[in-house]
Amino acid sequence: MDVQLTAAHWVYLAGILVILATMALRKNIVVPAVVATFLTALTFSGSIVTGLSAIFNASLVAAKELFNIFLIIAMVTAMLGALRQLGADRMMVAPFRRVMRAGTSSFLVLAAVTYVISLFFWPTPAVPLVGAVLIPVAIRAGMSPLSVGMVIAICGQGMALSSDYIIKVAPGISASAAGVEPDAVADKAMVLSLIVGGTALLITYLVQKRHWRAPSPDLLVEWEAEADRGIGETRGGDSSGGGGGSRPPRRPEPAGGPSGGGGEQAATATAVLVAPSDPIADPDTEAEKERRGTAKAFAMLVPLAYLAFIVYLMLGKFTEVVPPLQGGDAAAIVGGIAALILFGAAASTDRGGFLETTSDHLVDGLVFAFKAMGCVLPIAGFFFIGNPEFAGPILGISADAAGPAILFDLVTTVQAHLPQNAFITSFGILLIGLVAGLDGSGFSGLPLTGALSGALGPAVDVDPSTLAAIGQMGNIWSGGGVIIAWSSLVAVAGFARVPVLDLARKCFLPVMAGLILSTVFAVLVF
User: Fold this and answer.
1) Comparing C-alpha atoms, which of 495, 471, 386, 489 is closest to residue 19?
2) What is the dihedral of CA 455, 458, 460, 462, to 10 degrees?
C-alpha cells in the first residue's frame, strides 16, 4: 500500500516522540500534547484559525468519548461517600478480611476476581464492581493504591481484554482482516495473554511488595485523606507507595489491632462502660443502635446488589431469560445502582435534608473525577487527531468528508520497511500494534495488524493467525487501558485514587517484558 506522507504526518510524528520523551522524563505531558495538537492542525489546514480551534475541539471530542468514565467514577465515588458518612463502608468490606488478610492474599483475590469478571463481561463493568467492593479491602490489607491499580489494569484491560476469549469481538476483527478462522486467533491470543499477564503480575508483585504495609484500618483513612488533598499532587520521589515516596507517619493502631473491627468494638465498649445509668441516655443508645443497624443493612445491600447484577449479566450471556447487555449498557447499570444506593444511604443518614446531602455527595464525586482525570482530555485529543473517526470534528471537516488517517498512515509506511524474517516481522507487528494503540482505543488498530498479518505471514513462513494474535496483544495492551494514560486506564486510576500517568509508567516495564516473552514464545512454538 503506497501512502504519501505530508508535512502534517511528520509534525504529528514529532509530537508523538516529544510526548514519549516527556513521559520518560516523568514530566506532565499536557503542554506538549496541546502544542502538538495546534501544530498538527495548523500544518494540515494551513489556517491558524483551524489550529487554534483544534485545541478546543480536540478536548471536546475527547470529553464526549470519555465522559461516561468520568460519570461512573463520580457516581460510585458519591455512593462511597454516602456509605462512609453512614459508617457502612467498613462493615461492607469486613467479610472479605477473612480472605484478604494481608498484601499477598489481597493481590491474588483482586487479580482473580478482576480477570474472571472482565473475561466474561469486558473490563467496563468489572472496574466499578471491583472498585466499589474490593479496592478498600485491599488498601486496608496493606497493598499500596498504585499496586492495586496495576493489578486491576493488568488483569482486566490487559489479560482478559487482549484475549477476549468469551465475547470474541477482538479475535473476530483480527481474523477477518487476516483471512483466517476466528477460533485460531482466539486460541493463540488466549495463550499469549496469559503469558503477558502472568509475567506482568509476577514482576508487579516482586517490585511492589516492598511498598506494602502492615494491615490496619488507618490505611483506609489515610487513602481517603490523600484523595481529598488532590490526586495529582506528588510528594516527591517514587510514587510506588501510593502517591509519593515519603509516607505519612503511621498512626497508632486502635485497640484490637489490624484484624478488623477491634477499634470500633473498643470504642463501643468504652462508651458502654462510661455511660451513666440515667434513663436520659437511653434515646442516644437507641439511636446509635438504629444507626449501626442501618449501616449493616447497607453493608449487605451493596455487595448483594452488584452480585445480582453479575447474575443478570450471566443470564443474558448464557440464556434467553433476559436480553444480553453490551459493555456500555453494563456500565450504565453499575452507575444506576450506585445512584440508587447513594439516595438510600443519604436518606438514612439525614432524613430531613437528604436532598441537599445527596446533591453534595454527587458534586463531590464529580469534582473528584475531574480533579483526577481532567488532564487526560487534551492528551487524548491529540491522539484522536490521528484517528480518521475523530479527526474530522477536530479539524473542522464536514461530516460528509472522511478525516485524515494520520496515525494509521505512519504505521502503514513503517511496515513496508520490515525485513523478511520471522522474528523481525513478528516484533514489527507487535510494534505496529503498540503504536496503533496510542489513540487510546483498544480495537481500532486490529484491522491494520490483521491485514498486515495476512499479507506478511506467508512471506516469512509464519501462520497469519499467529501474527494476528501478536498484533492483537500489542494493540489492546497498549490502547485497551494498561500502558496508555489517555485510555480507559483513567477509570482504574480513578477508583484506585492514584495519578493516571504514574499508573501507566509503572505498568510499562512489566507489560513490555511480558509482550516480548510472549512474542518469542509465539514464533518458537506456534
Assistant:
1) 386
2) 100
